[in-house]
Design goal:
The structure is a homodimer of 369-residue chains. Chain A has 369 residues and is α/β, with parallel strands linked by helices. Chain A is built from twelve helices and 13 strands. Chain A starts with 9 loop residues before the first strand and ends with a helix.
Chain lengths: 369, 369
C-alpha cells in the first residue's frame, strides 16, 4: 500500500469543482481541538460569512458536518414530523430524494411534478396547495443539479407563505453561483454543499433556518429521529457565546478549507461571483453552439453553472467522457436517471468557472467529436 | 475577514489527536471526482486497509462520510427497528448516547449500568439477557472516551451470542490504539472515528458489519429512517466492482488523509502501534505518579490511549488547562458529565502517542502545579 497521488484534473462535472490552491493549503494546516478558543473564533467567522453568502441574517446559519445529502436530511429530519403533509415539487433527481426523506420520516408527501429540464411550475404548486389545505411544508429545488434548470424560488416561497406553509429549499448548486437571497425571498430552511460554487472540498453542508422554521422545530411533539442531525443539540456547539457544548467532533480541517473559500468569496464579492458564472456560461454557450451542441433547458430557466447539453447523435457517451478524462484530464458529468446517455452535464462552478476551462472544454470536444 | 492560521498545538486531549505532516499534506492534494477511476482505486485500498485495522474480512467495511457520532447512528439506524429490544450497557457518556439512538429510532432500550470509570460487567449483561429473552441487540462501548475504561469486548460478544443477539460496539477510541479483533471476537457491527488513534483529521467514521448484521439489515420490515445513512444505498457506491452508483459526494480530501494514515499504519504494523500506545502510557503513568496524580480507572481496565486522572485537590481545573493551552500550546481534555471538574483526560492517541509529548505534558504540569 502506497501514498495516493491523485491525477491533476480539470473538474467540469456536476461537482466537486476545482479547488483553489489557497483552499487546499488551508486544509493542510495543523489540526487543533474543536473546543480550542482559536477554533471557536474561526467558527464564528464562518457563520457570518455563510450569512453573507446566503444573504441572510438568520442566526441559525451554520455548516453541517457532512455532505449536502446530510444537509437535506437535516432540514427534513428537524422540520417534518410523522403525519405532516409536505408538498414536494419534483423536476429531477433531487426532488425525488426530498420525497424519500419525507416518507422515511413518516410524513405524507404530495407530489407536484414537472418535466426534467423544466422549472417548477408556480401554477401547479398553487393548485396543489388549494387541493391540500392541510399542507404544512413546501419543498423544492432551486437549482436542479441533475438537469441544470433553475426555479423561481422567490415566487414559489411567496405562494407557499400565502397558504401558511414553511419552505425547504435545495440550494446545493446555486449558493454563490447564481442569485440567491434567503431573507428577501423569505426562504425558511435551506441547505447547500461546499463542493459546488464555493469550491471548497466536499464534506460539509451549509444550512440556514428562519425564525419561522425554528418555531416549527421548537414546537415539535416528537424528538428528532436523528441524534447526529438534531439541531436542538447541534446548536449547543454552533450557537452563540463563548461557551460551547461538545456534541460531535467537528471536521476541523475541512472547515479550514470552507473558511478559506469564504474569505475568497468575500474578496471577490458575491455579485461579482454570480456575474463571473454567467459570463463563463455565455462563453461556453457560444463554443458549444459552434459545435452544434444544444441545451436541454430553455434559455430563461438555464443555470449558468450547470449546463446539460445533448450528446450529439451517434456519439458514444462513455467513450467520449473517458477520452476527455484520460487524454485531457478533463472531467465532465454523465446524465442521471432518465437523462443517462442523453445529456452531458458540464459544470462551471466556483473556481472551475474560468475562461481557460471553457476554452479547454470546447476545444477538446472539437478535437474528439 | 482573513485567512485562518491556527496556532500549532500539541493535542493530548480526547481527540482530535495530532495529525502527522504526511497526512496533512495528503489532505492538500488536488480534489478529483468521486466517480473518477483513480478515486475508486483509492477507495478499494482504503477498505482493505480498514479491514486490516479492524482485523476482519467483513466485506462491508468502509468509511462513513461523517464523524464518529454518525458512525454510531449508521449502526443503530440500520439495525434497530421500531419495537426491537436492545440492551445498552452504560458506563459513561457514549453508552448514554447509544441509548438515545435506540429510543429515537423507536427501539426499547434496556439499560445495564456500571459506574463511570469501570468496565462493563459481563455478569450484569448475562443477568439482563436472562431477564429479557426477547432482546435482539446488545450494544456497548469498547473504549469509553469519557472515562478511559476498557471493556472485555470478546467476552461480552460471546455472552450476547449465547442469547442469539447481535452486537453493536463503539470502537471510536480503541481502533489502532489497543487490541481489537473484530472477526476473532465476533463483533457484528462496529464503528470508530478517524481523529483518535488513526490520527487522520476528524470527519470520517470507519464501520464494519458482519454477515449476521447484514442479515438483520436485509430482513428489515421497515425502511431505514435515514436516507443518508441507509447502507443499502451507500453500498451501491462503496460496494464491490468497478461500477459505482452515485449516492452522495464523498469527502474526497478527507479520504486522502485517512488513506495516508492507513498507509502509515501498515508501515508501522498494527501490533507495533498497540505496543507504542502501551509504552507511552507507561511513561506517562510514571511521570504522573511522581506528581502524585492518580488514575480514575483501576489498572487492569485502563486504556493506554485515554488517561483519566484526578485533578489534585485545590487546583483550578479550567485555569490549569488554559495555562497549558496558552503558555505551552498543549491541549488536554476536561472531564465530561459527572466527571467535569474532577478529572483531566490526557490522550495518547495515534501520532500524539510519542515520548516527546509525554515528557512535555509531565514537565509542564510539574511547572505549573
Amino acid at each position: 500500500m502506497q501514498s495516493f497521488n491523485p491525477p491533476v484534473r480539470t473538474l467540469m462535472g456536476p461537482g466537486p469543482s476545482d479547488v483553489h490552491p489557497r483552499v487546499l493549503q488551508a486544509m493542510a494546516r495543523p489540526t487543533i481541538g474543536h473546543l480550542d478558543p482559536a477554533f471557536i473564533s474561526m467558527m464564528d467567522e464562518t457563520k457570518e460569512a455563510l450569512q453573507y453568502a446566503y444573504q441572510t441574517e438568520n442566526e441559525l446559519t451554520m455548516p453541517v458536518s457532512a455532505p449536502g445529502s446530510a444537509g437535506m436530511e437535516t432540514c427534513f429530519a428537524n422540520l417534518v414530523e410523522p403525519g405532516d403533509k409536505v408538498i414536494v415539487c419534483i423536476n429531477g433527481v433531487f426532488g425525488n430524494r426530498m420525497k424519500e426523506n419525507v416518507t422515511r420520516l413518516g410524513g405524507e408527501a404530495v407530489i407536484v411534478e414537472d418535466k426534467w429540464g423544466e422549472a417548477v411550475s408556480a401554477d401547479k404548486l398553487e393548485q396543489a396547495l388549494k387541493e391540500n389545505p392541510d399542507t404544512i411544508i413546501v419543498a423544492f429545488v432551486h437549482a436542479e443539479t441533475s438537469t441544470g434548470a433553475q426555479s423561481d424560488a422567490k415566487k414559489l416561497c411567496a405562494i407557499a407563505h400565502k397558504y401558511d406553509c414553511i419552505t425547504i429549499v435545495d440550494a446545493v448548486t446555486s449558493l454563490a453561483g447564481t442569485e440567491l437571497r434567503v431573507d428577501e425571498w423569505e426562504i425558511d430552511a435551506i441547505y447547500s454543499g461546499t463542493q459546488k460554487c464555493l469550491s471548497a472540498p466536499p464534506g460539509i453542508s451549509p444550512i440556514s433556518f428562519s425564525e419561522r422554521a425554528i418555531k416549527k422545530l421548537t414546537n415539535r411533539k416528537t424528538p428528532v429521529t436523528s441524534w447526529f442531525l438534531d439541531l436542538n443539540l447541534v446548536m449547543g456547539y454552533w450557537g452563540k457565546g463563548a461557551k460551547r457544548t461538545y456534541h460531535h467532533t467537528a471536521p476541523v480541517n475541512t472547515l479550514y478549507g470552507l473558511h478559506e473559500s469564504l474569505v475568497m468569496l468575500s474578496e471577490e464579492g458575491l455579485e461579482n461571483a454570480w456575474a463571473r458564472h454567467k459570463a463563463n456560461h455565455q462563453l461556453l454557450k457560444s463554443g458549444l453552439e459552434s459545435l452544434d451542441i444544444g441545451f436541454l433547458v430553455k434559455e430563461q430557466d438555464r443555470l449558468p453553472q450547470l449546463n446539460s447539453v445533448f450528446i450529439p447523435e451517434g456519439v458514444d457517451d462513455a467513450a467520449i467522457r473517458s477520452t476527455l478524462l484520460n487524454d485531457y484530464n478533463l472531467e465532465i458529468g454523465a446524465g442521471l436517471g432518465t437523462l443517462a446517455g442523453k445529456v452531458w452535464r458540464i459544470g462551471l462552478m466556483g473556481y472551475s468557472a474560468r475562461r481557460e476551462n471553457v476554452l479547454l472544454c470546447v476545444s477538446a470536444l472539437k478535437e474528439i467529436l
